[in-house]
Amino acid sequence: MANTLDQIFVLLSRWIVSLLPVALQPLVGILLSVVAIIAVFPGLFALTTVLERKGLGRMQNRIGPNRTGPFGILQPVADGIKSLTKEDIIPTSADAVVHFIAPLVLVVAVFMGFAVLPMGRNMQLVDMDAGLLFFFAIGASTELSIFMAGWSSRNKYSLLGAMRAVAQMISYEVPLLMSTVAIVMITGSLSLVKIVEAQNQYTWGLPHWYIFTPWGFAGFVMFCIAATAETNRSPFDLPEGESELVAGYFTEYSGFKFALFFLGEYLGMFSISGLGTTLFLGGWSAPLQVLNFVPSWIWFFSKVMLSITVLIWIRGTLPRLRQDQLMNFAWKFVIPMTLLNLIVAAVWHFLGDGWLRWIVCSAILLGVYVIGGRVQMRGKKFGPRSYRYAE
Question: Is the pTM of this model over 0.70?
Answer without folding.
Answer: yes
